[in-house]
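User: Continuing from earlier, I have the next pair ready.

Assistant: Great, send them over.

User: Here they are, in order.

Assistant: Folding the first of the pair now:
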Amino acid sequence: MAELKQRYDVRFTYNSNAIEGNTLSLRETALVLEQGITIGGKSLKEHLEVIGHGQAINYIESFSVADAVITEWELRQVHSLILRTIDPETAGRFRLLDVRAAGTESVYLPHYQVDKLMADFVEWLNSQNAKALHPIVYAAEAHLRLVTVHPFSRW
């Protein structure tokens, strides 16, 4: 089970960071995440993204073990763990500007709606109706709802 978690953590971190432009390979991501090794020719920012993402995974997993109620504070903490060493000004803070999906004409909902939309999201996330869904459906719906709001200026 520990080996499976380790593989998942590395792949999840690698894919999440690659989407955002991180150039570390899967193997390099594993070395940074598992052994704390720095990779020559790669930026400090890329290394910190891997470390922060790994910390966020562990933080999220602690909720599933405790079956905890998730609030906006926890969501902000996850974001903060990922960005606090890279972009402390925006880490854990909801966006204050309007944003669009990179490379598209798709514009996310206005920034002034984020607080209300996130309160609604958290209410749904902890509702009995949501928790009654199959875990995969629950996770997919939660992901869709969260990315539709796109509450942070950086992921």
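And the other member of the pair:
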Amino acid sequence: MTGHIDPTKESFAVFRAKDRPGPIHMLNLVRFRDQAAYPDGRVATGAEAYAAYGRESAPVFARLGGRIVWRGGFEHMLIGPGEEAWHECFIAEYPSVAAFVEMIRDPVYREAVKHRQAAVLDS
């Protein structure tokens, strides 16, 4: 199985082109690796690496007006592949597409996202 970790350049271009006034809401469904895949070989579980991503990216997310509007635990796939299971389920709100783009360009966020890339098996 090939997981989806980061948006493709094409997908991100379509997202940016749909810029419109007002907030956006992103549903995040995240499955962790058992062991994080850090390029430098450091050892952590996927959950630990994702927690590091959250800690380090939270100040940037908050500064740009982002907030978590819903968080819940995955329980059961009612419609869809039965083998699907997610470790993190939440909806993030951003004030605008521009705020999200600014976040991913922020140097502090760019450092933090390395933890997400090591942690995530699929999203």
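Worth noting for the second one:
The mean pLDDT is 93. Residues 73 and 89 are 6 Å apart (CA to CA).
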